[in-house]
Amino acid sequence: MRAWLERLENERGLDHLTAKMRRLVLGSYGVLMALMVYRGLQIEGDSGPLIPIVAFVLPLVLFLPSLIGRRPRGHAWLAFVSLLYFSQGVMVATLPGQGLRGTLEALVSLFLFAGCTGYARFRARQLRQMTEGN
User: Fold this and answer.
1) Which long-range contacts (CB under 8 A, 24 or more apart) does 127-133 make?
2) How does pLDDT run across 81-115, given as a tens digit for each residue?
């Protein structure tokens, strides 16, 4: 796997791979956020849908500074958090009538995981090259 990634880096370049992973992260992050808001709206509690929306969305919102700041370590942690959403999506997919929504949540969280791990790797290498070049 390491040899394949290094070959990919040499063929495509770190700038291209970093930009591609960033687009994947931002796209899947946005879709997952929308899915969580939609899921929160479907749950009616005593105080309305506000508490469920906050509960589903807050873990994702906490990573906004890392996404905006393009920090590799924050992306790596977001990758771990995305696995919680994957587990949740798999569990929801087993519920009657919720298969499509749960499957979509699981797939989007896997895309987020892949994008975050790729971005963390490529961005860290990119930053290392920039500091070594100075």
Assistant:
1) 127/72, 129/14
2) 999 999 999 999 999 999 999 999 999 999 999 99
